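Why do we care about 3D structure at all? Because function follows from shape, and shape follows, mostly, from sequence. That is the central idea of this module. The next example makes it concrete: a single protein chain, its amino acid sequence, and then its structure expressed as tokens.
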Amino acid sequence: MQSSKEYVEQHKNRFLNELIELLKIPSVSADSAFSQDVINTAEVVEKALVNAGCDLVELCETDGYPIVYGEKIIDPSLPTVLVYGHYDVQPPDPVELWDSPPFEPVIKETEEHPEGAIFARGASDDKGQMYMHVKALEFMVKTDQLPCNVKFMIEGEEEVGSVNIATYVANNKEKLKNDVILISDTGMISKEFPSITTGLRGLSYVEVEVTGPYRDLHSGLYGGAVANPINILTKMIASLHDGDNHITIPGFYDKVEELSSEERAEMAKAPFDINAYQNALEIESVYGEKGYTTNERNSIRPTLDVNGIWGGYTGEGAKTVIPSKAYAKISMRLVPHQDWKEITELFVKHFNEIAPKGAKVKVTPHHGGQGYVTPIDTIAYQAASKAYETTFGKTPIPQRSGGSIPIVSLFEEELGSKTILMGFGLDSNAIHSPNEHYGLWYYYKGIETIPYFFKYFTEMMASK
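And the structure:
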């Protein structure tokens, strides 16, 4: 019987060409100018699921972009795997920093990817990784090796907070019923050290606005006498961290999970080269909360970061004004037990309290989600581990991620399902940044590995 590796080798050129066509569509959910492109992408994913072998595929309308649902039910008595992914992508800005146009995919060999990598927005997050599952299904169906039932739920609003998926999930619990949820929207340590993500951070995302005078003022006539919103905003933001880079919002750390020294020691066993890390980012030193390592700061500790800040005159040349308003977008990555709604309320309260007289503050919460930790003693995790062992030849390392997938905690709350995060990307893939890319070796290795998860999960469920 043909193996997944043989099938991938036989069809790899087609698999790549299909992904290239998918990446050409600018499905930017955050920008309404691309709304038709997002819908077009959903239709392409719909067609791909049909061609891969799903018996039922439909575009499910929401108040935003449609959810692509597909299923292949071979026997209701067998286990069911629900695959989740997203077809929307981040905005490509700043476009001028891309070496090639973000929606004109190109293949380039790099030192890290001698087999080639595909450069395009969405290559790794999440079109490339999502499409691995579509092609894995194709292999299992075409070679008659699908061992259990499979359902797909591919959404188009993940990059804007999955704003409509909660309603869809709540209204379709029976339709989405499953034994485990499988997601590839995370990464792994390296080709030599495969890993499975076992934890995700939560997220609270807000926008702040500071208003001073009702209009822009001449900085010579009014400078020094009237509150400057940009000066005030930057001081307020600076005060959100102390000298040890500890977040100063009262109550922020009240529910933070403190890992034991034993757990931190286990985390430290993962290979990490601080010099390679700094060189890859072209920085002279790392930076962060005192008392924690780099890998702890970006996974098990909460953070607060300014994602964008603007106000006043930013055009060419000079314009001497005190602006009327200043703005910033701020995200807080949260660890398990921190409730994102509580943290948002704490931020709103604190930010208003530290505003000086002469300035008005407005905080607009956008989206968020809870953190998540998946246990490693479940059948699903063991099946995933065995799948990696089969294709990589070594046991994967459990690893917590600094990223957020808000839907994961919602799945457990609404569907009672655990999630397995089988990511095949790398931290160096520049997701959310210019020159995002995805190594072809990892794309093909994902398609090769995923069917083994289905195989081992079905076998282990039958013998439990």
